[in-house]
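User: Could you check the structure of this?
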Amino acid sequence: MNKKKSFKIITASVLALSLISCASTKSGADTQKESAEEKQRQADIAEAIKQELLPVGNLNAIPSEYQKIIPDGGTIEPIAYKSKNYYGDGQERNKLANVYLPYGYDGTKKYPVLYLMHGIGGNENEWGMTGMGSIVKRIMDNLIKNGDIEPFIVVTPNGKSGFDTKNSNNNYLAFYKFGEELRNDLIPYMDSNYSTIPDREHRAMAGLSMGGMQTINIGICECLDLISWFGAFSAAPTSYDVSRVSSTIDAHPEYKINYFYNICGLQDNVAYGAHSAAAKMLPRMSENITEENFCWQELMGGHDFGIWYLGFFNFARIFGKAE
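Assistant: Sure, the predicted structure tokens are below.
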């Protein structure tokens, strides 16, 4: 299956990330600075959650014919799989996820899989992949019915791999442990219980906001041996900078990136600067990222599902491109 597709890169200036070095002995000024940074971090988290919870906005960028409900389309089913409290005591725990199976799903066939991640304010249900009205399901059903893509499976897990029972303010840190859960628990579960193609050539990871950060930090920088298709939609401010991402990619030329798609709203005051600094200049920084396997898309919009559903629509066409 030839899935390569060229996209135009819209250029603009890159916002540099500042690196803060910490001395081993903290002065009063250092403590005050850390306190200010903590307050800012909590404010950023609160703002991201607030914007994620806004009603779904204008979806006119997605053709209306791809938003119709298809009565005999694919199905969505909830799953529970064994994992651990990776950010915590390591005890075994059940994790929940939702799985979209394309129309005509057949256990005698094999399907690619997309792991689709939520934002900091959500869980496995934030993408709305829970019933007939699901926009993800509608997009997938119509893309498949129209012959735009080959069928693939979509999984929306809970991206928090544990919790801090002592300080709930730190629970966002559980997002950074998801790579262990993905590698040790979720991918093995899907490959054992569904008719998947169990190799990196047929696995994708994408996500919104914090899920976009996970796609960059975890998908590319930790799990390049497992996944080769990536999509970041308004990646969160803690995404690694472009030099770290490019050095990781170039250190492993044996793990070719089939495609890395990015989208962000120009009015996104939560993610635009960080996402730009994480990805925009990759074709200039990495020997293994070119216009053949990379897209940076920026357009009018904020930190909301108007951008994210468009991102999903575009990325689904890239990952599932029919021969």
